[in-house]
Model the fold of this input.
Amino acid sequence: MAMSVTLKSYLDRNNIDYQTVHHHPSDTAFNSAKTAHIPTSSMVKGVLLTDNLGFVIAATTATRSLDLGAIQQLTNRSLELAKEDDLQKLLEDCETGSVPALGKAFGLPTIWDDKLALQPSFYLETGDHKELVRLSHFDFMALVEDEFHGTISH
Done:
């Protein structure tokens, strides 16, 4: 499998200049960064969250852990980790466990960690476990500028 068609279409529609980086198969965003020989602090992981109002993708660096309490407080929602079945339904053209950190591509809101604003460039999962997409700071911020953000990790 290659980049999610949904993600590729979204990036192309928004005239985003991106590069793909191939790597050995890996099971987490952190390990993807390691196998691709990129800084783990530049790797953005997406995590699907849910509550009775719907789904949200949370985005932070692969070196940090999401703080669900902080997310719940910031959003005034009871968000929790979504189930694997939900991932498959919502991210149909993505492999299980590979969540691109751009919810809008899939019609979902994104909440992103303020720590991301400090990164010069970003690498994101593409929907499979063998490829990343590299975005400039400017392009990533343009894609998430109207999305909710705050300190959501530790």
Summary: The mean pLDDT is 95. The domain at 5-150 is CATH 3.90.960.10 (YbaK protein). The first helix runs from residue 5 to 13.
